[in-house]
Amino acid sequence: MEDGAAAREAERWEGYVDWRNRPAVRGRHGSMLAASFVLVVEVLENLAFLANASNLVTYLMNFMHYSPSQSATTVTNFMGTAFLLALLGGFLSDAFFTTYAIYLISAFVEFLLRVIDPT
Question: What residue ranges in the chain does DSSP mark as E strands?
């Protein structure tokens, strides 16, 4: 009887819980299935971001009448700013705040920027 309890205790990941706040068990939680889901979501997110960037170049050239070099520079600056702000937000959420607090701060900053310049 004690061997079965010790085996179940060895299967648990200490300090980790599932979404229902139950102890995480090695055979049921994690694995390559969960990792592959995260990887697929990341690939699709990057595809969507790059599709938006290419559409932004088309929009700037055709409707805003920017030159090709101006529109490419604008989109490059936009993408660089987005990636650097993501790194800054990740660092701040890991080091000082929670992810939710950083989300609220970034949403508030976006709101202020839209109030200042609503274009």
Answer: 12-17, 23-25
